[in-house]
Amino acid sequence: MKTRTLIALISSVGGGLVVAGGAAVGARAGVKGQKAASQRVVEMLPIHADWWRERLHHEGQVTYLAIGDSAAQGVGATVPSRGYVGLLARRIRHRSRMTVRVVNLSVSGATTWGAKRDQLPKLQHFTPDVCTVSIGANDIADFHPDKFERNIRAIYGAVPSHAVVAELPCMFSPDRERKVAVANEIIHRVADELGLTVAPLHGITKRVGIRRTFFNTYGDLFHPNDRGYEVWASAFEPAIDARVDTVAAIRHYLSAREAEDLGREAGAVANARAEQDTDGADELDLAHHAGPVERLRQRMTGSVPTQQEPDEPTDSSNGPTDPDAPSGPSGDVGGRA
What we know:
The chain is built from twelve helices and five strands. By secondary structure, it is an alpha/beta fold. It has two domains: about 30-245, SGNH hydrolase (Rossmann fold, 3-Layer(aba) Sandwich); about 255-305, no CATH class. Strands 2-1-3-4-5 form a five-stranded parallel beta sheet, with helices on both faces. The protein is globular, with a radius of gyration of 25 Å.
């Protein structure tokens, strides 16, 4: 009996040592894998920066400008265009049925202070139709609320009044989340004062949960991967769609001079004219009862066919190409819709 007990004890201890040893090996492998992924991120940085820099030379009927850090660069995605900026650019192109020029001013590793210093001076050279700002995650490690607010005020005060600014994402760590809560309160307060739209990035990433976020993160356990960037893009999409529709209305109903004179009121005036113009447009009243601005966009982009005369000729060679067609092997975000 004593022999059996001794054997059982030895087996138990041995099994525990095997499990502990396996856990230690797994932990070492995990740390090694994370270090390797972090090194790959370092190698990605100049590649992504060059890719976006080259896109500055592309022409487009709509200009989309992004301010941000490595997330705006798409670091962690399989290709730069699979980051949230690339995904939003593709959405703008599909919705507007126009070519898009992407001006990505973001810099990997940028803090709010870095964005104020390096990105804002370049902003004055562009007049974007769509603008997104996602900055501040790199401030959290050494967070100073007063400095953060000063920098955020400078950035938000310089971007167009139609810009969409993002909350900081959920970081799940209790210590970091306390700082993120303070930062997001500042973001909302300053954005409200300046009339900017806030993309609910924190709420959306928090709802995804820590388990799914782990699988939506690149191997360095910091940057999103392709799936993670799809979650990020979804936080911006409603505001981006609304802005694209407003841009379409402004271009259809206002002259360039009138739009300039109206400034921040241009969108409201154009949308009001769109509502008047689409009242009674029965042929555009879809089964799902699209709103007047949506009906206007459909009519302007040709996504809803208008009535033709019986023998009216058609020329398919001049129509828009399939919006869901591949954008090329490089995943380019430019080009025709």
